Amino acid sequence: MAVRVEKSVCALDCPDTCALLVNVDEAGRGSKLRGDPSHPITRGFLCGKVAQYLEREYHPDRLLYPLRRTGPKGSGKFSRIGWDEALDEVAYQFQKCSEEFGPESILPYSYAGTMGMLNGSGMDRRFFHRLGASQLDRTICSAAGGAALLASQGTKFGTEPEQFAKSRLIIAWGANILGTNVHLWPFIDEARRQGAQFYVIDPVKNRTGRLADKHFAVNPGSDLALALGLIHVILRNELQDKEYVSAYTRGFDELAAVAKQYPPERAAELTGIPAAEIEALAIKYATTRPAAIRVNYGVQRSDRGGSAVRAIAALPVLTGSWREVGGGLQLTTSGAFEFDTLSLQRPDLQRLSPLGRPARVVNMSRLGHALNELEGPRVHALCVYNSNPGAIAPNQKGVIAGLQRSDLFTVVLEHFLTDTAEYADVVLPATTFLEHTDLYLAYGHYFTQLARPALARPGEVKSNVEIFRALAKRMRFDDACFEDSEDDMIRDLLNSNSEFLKGISLEQLEENRSIRLRVSEEGTPFLPFAEGGFRTASGKFDFGGESLRYTPPVESRRGDAELHARFPLEMISSKNDDSMNSTFGYRGSVDSQTAVLAIHPADAAARGITQGMLIRAFNDRGFCFRSAVISDRVKAGVVHVPSVRWNRTSVDGLGVNQLTSERLTDLGGGATFYSCLVDVAPAE
Ligand SMILES: Nc1nc2c(c(=O)[nH]1)N[C@H]1C(S)=C(S)[C@@H](COP(=O)(O)OP(=O)(O)OC[C@H]3O[C@@H](n4cnc5c(=O)[nH]c(N)nc54)[C@H](O)[C@@H]3O)O[C@H]1N2
Ligand SMILES: Nc1nc2c(c(=O)[nH]1)N[C@H]1C(S)=C(S)[C@@H](COP(=O)(O)OP(=O)(O)OC[C@H]3O[C@@H](n4cnc5c(=O)[nH]c(N)nc54)[C@H](O)[C@@H]3O)O[C@H]1N2
Ligand code: SF4
Ligand SMILES: [Mo]
After folding, report:
1. Tens of pLDDT along 77-103?
2. Tens digit of pLDDT for each residue in 259-313?
3. What pLDDT sits at residue 1?
4. Of 197, 305, 525, 603, whose CB count within 10 A is highest?
């Protein structure tokens, strides 16, 4: 059979948003998936998890037909039904909830299972807006850091990945680059070949940390104190770029006053990093030109995570590093994708809903609360897509109790029967990104990309766009936008008057598939803040002043002393290298990598824990079982659980989020997954 090569885009929740090539036979079946060698960021390679994506595409457990539950919730007993019956049932239940309890009793729950604009945040949003359903505040991942950048910079721009090759010092701050952002690595490698130093600030010494020139094992949740200590030293030595600071910033004196109270000795006490090292790091950072910081979302998953990002983002501003190619900082680049999201999502449709006004907002990081305690109205219908809250949401005990409610109707759009789908009344089989059209932004580079269906669809799968379009029809929503084709939606998105999108059309994307945003002249680097250009109300970088004063997270070694006495270990359940949150949880190799808890030799010895022993991790919220890995990749007092494992394969069906709380971050209302006190003991 003849084989052709099709292009696609990896839709997973990853900063790299890779350009893909896949071999396709005449029957539309794919073989050999690889990175596009002509893409400047993908550079012809993929991460290990997606290199094997065709295994997922054709997996025998993939959902191919709509299902109706036949056993008790959670039993996993379903039978096949037709699409008409499935959609009728969902539409009937939504209608019933809307009439009986008001449309806000319906809650959509989604995150970034696909980052495609249409299937991730397009027709679904239109549908729920028109319905008058509760609005979901999508805070589970990046809300604190995002809010921090908006408060300080006024926008979410960051250093281009390509420019890291020009840096002389690169600091990975709560960023596991080899695991979660591997396409940045070649640029770092190139810089190091030219003599650059690579430092890592992370309580866990993961693969990235082991390859660093220096690793700083900071106490979890104490980055704000570290950043203030660095600022203290920079200012004390007058290493700041006075011209840049006076021209382009606001609140310098207040910042200086706060930082004055964090001399290296005090910062050392709070962070666990010796004062001399803080001193040396500050001087090294301020005097090495150019220096780039890759801060990732790891730092902001704790109580003071938002302020920590604000203080870290102050560093390249103080040193004037934004003036230089290879300087600055990257948390995300997503702000440059200035698509017309209002025309995509149509929040104005809420006025046509039975509510006639914007619906209430429910924070997705508190799903347990939303399903069990929220009133006015109580949630009676839940629609989950692009997410697996049964495994990934904090307060898992509460979430599962909610999913078990007999008076809750749940519909899940999925590829696999996940820990959430198991509780659904109706399951709808979804396409993968290799099977549908979508437009992509990226949060780790500046290329926008188009994907067309590359592979034939197995079974009766439908895309999220098609499913919500069909539901709109069932609900008799006759607004013209529900008739829009995928191409109509893409054209609207691109038609936003943004300078960055100027001249980028669907036709052009059809031809090139990946186009660099017009953030700078072709062939010249993007220096967003070289001459100020911050997008805050004042047009200046806003340091944040008094709000940056540090208090330790409640659940930390310096937080609530009584709690710490009972649960003396700080648990970090950060990303597993071969996972994508829970997406690949069915893979045996991923399952065994996420079945462990790493503990320091001293902490293990004190508890009679030996290598490989089945242990129980617990706190007041719950417990789960893992096997012990005794390792000095964690410092004493810290344990590490690579995440997120499927509950179903875990002992007693208990996932790591049995332990995590619904406490929110200081900015943005984000989840605090990485401030979590536990203790561990040998399992009986
Ligand atoms: N392989 C793989 N790649 C992924 C994902 C995955 O599951 N697996 N998930 C994707 C998603 S959803 C996201 S949001 C990104 C996240 O990408 P990253 O932010 O890089 O990933 P995390 O594992 O959340 O955190 C990064 C590092 O922060 C450290 N950390 C934890 N607490 C602290 C702290 O208080 N201070 C400091 N300085 N460091 C801390 C962790 O030990 C970890 O090594 O990755 C994406 N890419
Ligand atoms: N303990 C702990 N918990 C965490 C984290 C952690 O580090 N530790 N990380 C947190 C973070 S940063 C994040 S972002 C969240 C992520 O949590 P989720 O957003 O739930 O991410 P995944 O677990 O990857 O689940 C995505 C689901 O979307 C489905 N999917 C993919 N594409 C499509 C599609 O086109 N249509 C439909 N209908 N479904 C699709 C996949 O099959 C998969 O089951 O988890 C959070 N939870
Ligand atoms: S998960 Fe990230 S690194 Fe892997 S293929 Fe997708 S975009 Fe590339
Ligand atoms: Mo995330």
Report:
1. 999 999 999 999 999 999 999 999 999
2. 999 999 999 999 999 999 999 999 999 999 999 999 999 999 999 999 999 999 9
3. 80
4. 305
Please give the distance, rounded to the nearest whole angstrom, from the Cα atom of residue 425 to the centre of ligand 2: 20
Tokens at 451, concatenated: 């994907």
Residue 140 has pLDDT above 90, yes or no: yes
User: What's the CATH superfamily of 159-331+527-548?
Assistant: Dimethylsulfoxide Reductase, domain 2 (3.40.228.10)
The CATH number given to 3-57 is 2.20.25.90
Which CATH number among 3.30.70.260, 2.40.40.20, 2.60.200.20, 2.60.40.10 corresponds to the domain 561-682? 2.40.40.20
Mean pLDDT computed over every residue of the chain? 98
Is pLDDT above 90 for 166? yes
Q: Which atom of ligand 3 is nearest to the CA of 51?
A: 5
**224 within 8 A of 550, measured Cβ to Cβ:** yes
Report whether residue 10 contacts ligand 3, using a CB cutoff of 6 Å. yes
> What number is the average pLDDT over the span 359-387?
98
Tokens of 651: 């002992």
Q: Are 408 and 420 in contact (CB under 8 A)?
A: no
Q: What is the pLDDT of residue 662?
A: 98
Please report which helix (H) or strand (E) contains residue 515, including its range: strand 514-516
Whether 46 is in the pocket of ligand 3, judged by its Cβ within 6 Å, is yes
Which helix (H) or strand (E) segment is 201 a member of?
strand 197-201
The residue written with tokens 């006025």 in the block is 351
Cα angle, residue 232 at apex, residues 227 and 238 outer, rounded to 5°:
125
Give the distance (Å) from ligand 2 centre to CA of residue 414. 11
Peptide bond into 552 cis (omega under 30): no
Closest-CA residue, ligand 3 atom 4, reads: 47
End-to-end CA distance of the chain: 58
- Helical packing angle, 223-236 and 264-271, nearest 10°: 160
pLDDT classification of 624: cutoffs 50, 70, 90: very high
Residue to mutate, 117, 574, 583, ligand 2, most ligand atoms under 8 Å from C-beta:
583
Identify the residue whose C-alpha is closest to ligand 3 atom 3: 47
Dihedral angle over CA of 142, 143, 145, 146, nearest 10: 100
For the cut 90, the answer to whether the pLDDT of residue 225 exceeds it is yes
What pLDDT was estimated at residue 275?
A: 98
Domain ranges of the chain: 3-57, 67-140+342-485, 159-331+527-548, 561-682
Sorted by sequence, the CB contacts under 8 Å of residue 291 that are 6+ apart come out as 167, 168, 169, 170, 171, 285, 316, 319, 321, 327
CATH number of this structure's domain 67-140+342-485 = 3.40.50.740
Q: Cα dihedral sign for 13, 14, 16, 20?
A: negative
